Amino acid sequence: MSWAETLRTALDAVRAHRLRSALTMLGIVIGISSVIVTVGLGQGAQQQVRDQIDALGSNLLIVSPGSSTDDSGTRGGFGSATTLTLADADALADPEVAPDIAAVAPVSSSNASLTAGSTNWSTRLVGATPEWPSVRARELTAGRFFTAEEMAGAASVVVLAPDTAAELFTVGSPLGQSVTVGGRSLTVIGVLASSGATEVSASEDDQALVPMTTAQQITGASADSVSTIYVEAQSADWLSAAFQEITSTLSTRHGITEEADFTVSTQESLVETANSTNKTMTVLLAGVAAISLLVGGIGVMNIMLVSVSERIKEIGLRKALGATPAVIRRQFLTEASILGLAGGAFGVLIGAIVARMLPGLIDQPVSISPTATVLALVVALAIGVGFGVHPASRAAALAPIDALRSE
Amino acid sequence: MSGHPVIELDDVRKVYSTGAGEVAAVDGISTRVEQGEYVAIIGPSGSGKSSLMNILGCLDVPTSGTCLIDGQDVTRLDEPQLAHLRNRVIGFVFQQFHLLPGMSALRNVELPLVYAGASAAERRERAERALARVGLKDRGGHRPGELSGGQQQRVAVARALVTDPALLLADEPTGNLDSTSTADVLALFRELHAQGRTIVLITHEPDVAAEADRVLTIRDGRLSEVALR
């Protein structure tokens, strides 16, 4: 019996019991569509994180003060010491020392209360250098960033991040207005554009940037220490080379032989952290989807068993007319596979529809992955075949006389 | 056609184990059916008639003895080989018609050819010819439910003929038919016999058995020849 004929017979049988076939497929439809949506949610979240991080500049390296041991032997953790200096930043900016580094932007940040007229707002006061916008890949919606001259002269100027500007100046343009910080009056010369990132770095849109020299005067901090050095590599491909140069330069400068007193992190490591959280959620949801697929598969087996006992007469007749056990087995296996595959196809369809509608309802991006779709169809087919084996073998093993005699 | 008998039984026994011990449903039957014969086997229910019919139809194998169907010893065949033999050598006609309700009459008739591996074109051509042979040329597109009992049984006969089998094996073919349809089907059998078909008809009705050239009576698993009419 040819495959085309087997397929035709199986399709006839599926069509003959439309409602039952539909109900049988339901379990697989639900399972597959939840797999599609789950994977879509997971991938959507990953894509979102990646987009956010790309928006921050993907060739960015962040040097933070690391653990240190003070004179009394007390060890401090990450960021507890101010081991980085402006001189470190200058050294990294030297193209002779670190050829793969494009630009360096040291910052010193502290918390401060800003006052504009009768409004005040507590935020991060960041002392920066003129390279900051290019290294951090940030743009301004209004005004300009401060210049090297203003930096050298510790000018009384400030650039506000968009949220900060909105908090302090509810009406009118903040440009040219005055903001008081720690008793010093600063003129607003620019407003940053939003970073485009929403989760990873929400604070990026709420900060006030002043020349580093000005920040030192306001906070009275050591003239030399910085809290973070942002380093822009020549390109994303040179990240690891830049990483090496930073590590060796700073280790030499700090006279380090064993444990470094600084940490260099990349955006990549941030992505990984964010993804690992997403992964937990995805695994959890995928587990639920897998269970519903299992239940769907058992449903297929159940219905196929019922179908075999209901069609004992048909099986007996086919055997009497010359169908071998192998042919009968193949027919029922094909039927189960059709149910599985059709269930999978409907599941993919419904999953795709839900994935399209979901972002509008829960504000979560869902991206449908072609790999997951193909895999889902293969799994659905495998479920049909896997759970069809037992009923098909039972049908094949039926003795033709018993089958024909049954009334 | 070769010269061997269509059916050759030698001391065939079929023993079933029941709670009360062993029961010999077929208890040492020896007989021959030659090509072109029209034989009726008559017996009351419980006589071993069905067991004999199953053995003749290769639906079951005897416990002991030899059973040659179209020259082949069925006791030496496995299930796929038996299926093959049923497909090629035997055309069944059942009391319950056993037509598949979801298919047209034509596709029902095609079914044995499907298992024989015939091409779609050949199947169609032969099935149409078989339907025409039983006088249902224009009913091929109808489903069994749309046909009368007599017509359904004629479709079943067409299905039995479509592979051009050596043996037409009819198990109570008129059991579910009214008298008009019964006469109809028996007339068809007679015609087929006249054309040289070998027919074995199993029944419990003496009127039906009287149609055959030769009548065998089965009682308690043993066969006896009835004098020719």
Description:
The complex is a heterodimer of chains A (407) and B (229). A six-stranded mixed beta barrel of chain A has the order 5-6-11-8-10-9. A two-stranded antiparallel sheet of chain A has the order 2-3. Chain A has a two-stranded antiparallel ribbon with strand order 4-12. Chain A is elongated. Chain A has 407 residues and is of the alpha+beta class. Chain A is built from 13 helices and 14 strands. Chain A has two domains: 3-52 and 274-405, no CATH class; 82-260, no CATH class. Chain A is 55% helix and 19% strand. In chain A, strand 5 (101-116) and strand 6 form a beta hairpin. The longest helix of chain A is centred in the last third of the chain and has 44 residues, at 267-310. Chain B has 229 residues and is of the alpha/beta class. In chain B, helix 3 packs across helix 4, helix 3 (105-116) packs parallel to helix 5 (149-161) and helix 5 (149-161) packs parallel to helix 6. Helices cover 34% and strands 27% of the residues of chain B. Chain B has a six-stranded mixed beta sheet with strand order 6-7-8-3-9-10, with helices on both faces. A four-stranded antiparallel beta sheet of chain B has the order 2-1-4-5, with helices on one face. In chain B, helix 6 links the parallel strand 7 (167-171) and strand 8. Chain B contains seven helices and ten strands. Chain A binds chain B through residues 1-2, 5, 9, 12-13, 16, 313-314, 316-327, 399-401, 404-405, 407, and chain B through 50, 54, 57, 59-60, 79-80, 83-84, 86-88, 92, 94, 96, 98, 100, 102-103, 111-112, 114-117, 159, 163. Chain A: It comes from Nocardioides dubius. Chain A: Residues 21-248 form the MacB-like periplasmic core domain.
